[in-house]
Amino acid sequence: MFEHLPFDGNLVDLENYTLVYKILDNAADDMLYFGERVACCRPLPSTQNNKYDDETYYSKYNLKLRPYLGPTSTDHELALLMANQGQVSAGDFVYDPFVGTGSIAAALQHFGAFVFGSDLDIRVIKGYGVGRKTKNQIKGLDDIKKFDINTNFQYYGLPLPDFWVQDMNTPMLATNRPIFDAIVCDPPYGVRARTQTVGVAESKQKKFKERTVNPSEKH
Ligand SMILES: C[S@@+](CC[C@H](N)C(=O)[O-])C[C@H]1O[C@@H](n2cnc3c(N)ncnc32)[C@H](O)[C@@H]1O
After folding, report:
1. Which CATH number is 123's domain given?
2. Residue 1 placed within a domain
3. What confidence category does residue 9 fall into, taking pLDDT thresholds of 50, 70 and 90?
4. How many domains does the chain have?
5. At what angle do helices 103-110 and 76-85 cross, to 10 degrees?
6. What pLDDT score was predicted for residue 27?
7. Measured between alpha carbons, how far is 182 from 137 in angstroms, rounded to an integer?
8. Ligand 1: does its nearest atom lie under 6 Å from the Cβ of 117?
9. 124 Cβ inside 6 Å of ligand 1
10. Cβ–ligand 1 contact at 107 (below 6 Å)
11. What's the rounded Cα separation, in Å, for the pair 131 and 126?
């Protein structure tokens, strides 16, 4: 059950353990919260050296330390939680039909799945205008020549998923046999991203019809 966590049996020393407790003073609701640290987030690096001894997989995928980003890249912690909710494990076939810049795909890939991703917008996959190189100073970016969806996977040392362009409104597979173990995605039904579709808008279709001469009315 816990095989995806980065612990082997020798890591836990019950004789000499360290527990970190924190108190959070939340100004918004004027409450104090007390808790134990279970994972750690890296602060933004102030230098080009962004390696920390206490790196966990939660901090490794921090969006602030990711080379390629888009306007709606899914938060890294949320993506990892979604992969967990999908019960994704090594060898699973998992699909993200709204893959964008691949934030969820990276989380799925981290857990060892075979990942497939598609998106309507080729620009976000290929790095044309919509997706962009991070503005943060991250070690190793000078060596990267092209910034697109593959860049992050190469940077993390993860295998490359299969990506393609597709409108989710179109049928995908001519089979009624299940192919994927899970579908994990961040659909464009919110404030951050609107649903789009390929085709000609109804208003334009109407204009086109009006301009088109009906052959029976020609004479
Ligand atoms: C909320 S974003 C997903 C972000 C993604 N998880 C990431 O990390 O970048 C929604 C995505 O759905 C895509 N989209 C919108 N309408 C679509 C459609 N009809 N079919 C497929 N993709 C669509 C958008 O291009 C956008 O990239």
Report:
1. 3.40.50
2. no
3. low
4. 1
5. 50
6. 93
7. 35
8. no
9. yes
10. no
11. 8
Q: Kindly tell me if the per-residue pLDDT of 54 is higher than 70.
A: no
Other beta carbons within 10 angstroms of residue 52's beta carbon come to 14
Ranges 104-113, 134-143, 210-219: which has the least confidence:
210-219
170 lines ligand 1 (CB under 6 A): no
Whether 17 is covered by a domain: the verdict is no
**Strand, coil or helix: 26:** strand
**Considering the domain boundaries, does residue 12 fall inside one?**
no
The residue whose C-alpha atom lies closest to atom 27 belonging to ligand 1 is 100
Structural domain containing residue 120: 57-210
Indicate the pairing of strand 93-96 with strand 114-119.
parallel
Least confident of 43-47, 59-63, 203-207: 43-47
Q: In which band, very low, low, confident or very high, does the pLDDT at 16 lie, cut at 50, 70 and 90? A: confident
Q: Which residue has the higher pLDDT, 50 or 177?
A: 177
Sequence letter at residue 29: D
Question: How many Å lie between the centroid of ligand 1 and the Cα of residue 141?
Answer: 26
Q: Is 61 in the pocket of ligand 1 (CB under 6 A)?
A: no
Q: Is the CB of 186 under 6 A from ligand 1?
A: yes
Proportion of the chain above pLDDT 90, given as a percent? 49
Q: Point out the ligand 1 atom lying closest to the alpha carbon of residue 168.
A: 20
Amino acid at 19: L
Query: Rounded to whole angstroms, how far apart are CA atoms 203 and 206?
Result: 5
Closest atom of ligand 1 to CA, residue 197: 19
Query: Per the domain annotation, does 61 fall within a domain?
Result: yes
Categorize the per-residue pLDDT at 14 as very low, low, confident or very high, splitting at 50, 70 and 90. confident
